[in-house]
UniProtKB/TrEMBL annotation:
Signal peptide residue numbers: 1-21
One biological process term in Gene Ontology: carbohydrate metabolic process
Domain of life: Eukaryota
Protein name, entry field: Polygalacturonase
Length: 475
């Protein structure tokens, strides 16, 4: 028999016990560490979970979730599935409406490393998955670990070679691995105070969801593993991300529009390191991206800082990037990125793609130290319009040995193209303001900077420079 624990303050006890006593054996607790009253809770231990990390605890976890879900329907309040200290190896866990995974600070949920641990459909390969659910969450200070290193076929400092499950025919190449946590068509999602560690593929994925809060989440993925994205916000609205710490191989915060638009996203007070883009819009970009705010973000030693990579005809508007410190450097060119602190492009993916468009971007209070310049490149059918760069300190210097002199249009488009290195490289723009911007150029031997501003009047129109300084300095 499982125990349904009710965590409430003594004041409300009598009212609550009445409604519960007929149903299950209750143990009513005074809560020690849950400040909020009025939710049910059930421990996976009560259903036989061992928490040893060797045997699978899938069945007890699923039973606990089902019991919680039944209690949610019956009593109309949230129910927490508690994971006490321990390691819980599991196949895919399906979250239900009203159910919150409450993972103790010293508890880890370990994703199974085998194909049989995941559902048949590749689109549902997640360690934890919620589909068509409301009021769901993951909290508690604990860890969810995808055992990503078990998916590395060969470690390689340039880029790890990953296991592929394409033998199912579900997917091809090396992008055929399970994601860590997914919310598909969900509403009112709360992910807070958890560590998401070593995903085998993408880490935290929102799909066609609405009203998501992601707070105090730490994401760690192997720096050399491809596709270890941090947070992918796909076709979802009203997402608030704050106080995140992301250190991973692939794109850290990555909105995508594949089957619908992305409206209202904010990411604030974050720290990011990645071998790819720290913030990346796209490259899946068929629909709108609108009304985003990125504020108070530190980006260190990344391959690209703020990137808008619109390839599929979608349009972007009303974005603010403020109070951001960026350091970008070159890494192995098999990774997209060429050390650009800011990268904005609408070049169509291929001949059959429509050109996207980008307008109303504001970059304010940006400090960057980078091995390459800012790249702003619209396309014939998709100009960049009304871009503002205000209060920026840009320091250009080289500190790695990787080759420069390449412009990176990947994926698709013109791929990699030889080109001089510029402070601002601009193509196909209408309306650009640069105000209070200082560029400092390192004066050392390795310096191969060409032009502070690189553009042709035939494709760049209506630019204004106000308080723009360019000067060299001795390292
Ligand atoms: C978690 O484990 C650590 C080390 O074993 C211990 O010091 C700490 O008290 C535990 N924390 C809690 C909240 O139980
Ligand atoms: C994936 O499948 C294709 C075709 O079925 C095969 O050629 C390829 O080697 C497989 N890749 C991996 C990494 O297993
Ligand atoms: C997001 O908002 C847009 C605009 O209102 C809407 O078309 C779209 O369906 C919404 N997406 C979701 C997942 O709610
Ligand atoms: C976006 O946010 C605005 C302002 O809060 C709100 O009015 C609008 O409905 C939101 N859009 C969507 C698609 O939810
Ligand atoms: C900026 O974010 C950091 C956390 O990364 C936080 O400590 C700091 O208080 C934030 N600053 C402001 C002005 O909000
Ligand atoms: C950026 O760097 C400046 C100067 O070092 C510092 O005052 C500011 O707090 C930093 N901001 C962020 C978001 O890291
Ligand atoms: C740029 O540097 C100047 C002089 O050091 C400083 O006053 C200003 O606050 C800096 N601006 C930003 C956005 O970091
Ligand atoms: C930019 O920095 C200045 C000076 O620190 C501050 O007054 C202003 O509010 C900041 N702008 C934004 C959009 O955060
Ligand atoms: C030039 O660009 C600025 C800023 O993007 C815009 O406000 C202005 O209307 C444009 N002027 C013309 C003549 O297009």
């Amino acid at each position: 028999m499982f125990q349904l624990q009710f965590l409430v303050s003594t004041v409300t006890l009598s009212f609550i016990t009445q409604s519960y006593s007929s149903m299950v054996q209750l143990s009513i607790l005074q809560s020690h560490y849950h400040p909020k009253p009025y939710f049910l809770s059930i421990s996976v231990i009560g259903f036989g979970a061992a928490g040893g990390g060797v045997e699978y605890d899938t069945v007890p976890i699923r039973k606990a979730i089902n019991a919680c879900s039944a209690a949610v329907s019956k009593y109309r309040r949230q129910c927490h599935v508690i994971f006490p200290p321990g390691k819980y190896l599991t196949a895919t866990i399906l979250l239900k409406s009203g159910v919150v995974l409450d993972i103790h600070r010293n508890a880890t949920i370990l994703g199974g490393p085998k194909l049989e641990d995941y559902p048949k459909e590749q689109s549902r390969w997640y360690v934890i998955l919620a589909e068509d659910a409301v009021d769901v969450g993951i909290i508690g200070g604990g860890e969810i670990n995808g055992q990503g290193l078990k998916f590395v076929q060969r470690l390689d400092e340039k880029k790890n070679v990953m296991v592929s499950w394409n033998r199912t025919g579900a997917c091809l190449g090396d992008e055929c691995r399970p994601r860590l946590v997914g919310f598909i068509r969900c509403r009112n999602i709360k992910v807070s105070d958890v560590r998401l560690i070593e995903p085998a593929y993408w880490c935290l994925h929102l799909v066609r969801s609405d009203k998501t809060s992601i707070r105090d989440v730490t994401i760690y993925g192997n720096f050399n593993s491809p596709n270890n994205d941090g947070i992918d916000i796909e076709d979802s609205n009203n997402t608030v991300i704050t106080r995140c710490n992301i250190n991973t191989g692939d794109d850290a915060i990555c909105p995508k529009s594949s089957t619908g638009p992305v409206y209202n996203l904010s990411a604030t007070d974050c720290w990011i390191r990645t071998k790819s883009s720290a913030i990346k819009l796209g490259s899946a970009s068929f629909y709108a991206f609108k009304n985003f705010l990125f504020d108070n973000i530190t980006i260190v030693e990344s391959h690209r800082g703020l990137a808008l990579q619109i390839r599929d005809g979608g349009y972007v508007s009303d974005m603010t990037f403020s109070n951001i410190n960026i350091s970008t450097r070159y890494y192995h060119p098999s990774w997209w990125g060429r050390a650009e602190p800011i990268y904005v492009t609408t070049c169509p993916r291929d001949a059959s793609s429509k050109a996207g468009s980008i307008s109303n971007l504001r970059f304010v209070n940006i400090t960057a130290t980078s091995e390459n310049g800012i790249f702003l490149s619209g396309s014939g059918g998709g100009v960049l319009s009304n871009l503002k760069f205000i209060n920026m300190n840009l320091t250009y210097k080289r500190w790695t040995k990787f080759t420069d002199g390449l412009v990176d249009y990947r994926p698709g488009c013109q791929e990699l193209v030889k080109h001089q290195t510029a402070g601002f490289m601009m193509e196909h723009i209408d309306g650009l303001v640069v105000e209070n911007v200082v560029m400092k150029w390192s004066n050392d031997e390795s310096m191969r900077w060409n032009n502070p501003l690189d553009f042709r009047p035939s494709t760049v129109n209506n630019i204004s420079l106000l308080n723009f300084y360019s000067r060299s300095y001795q390292q």
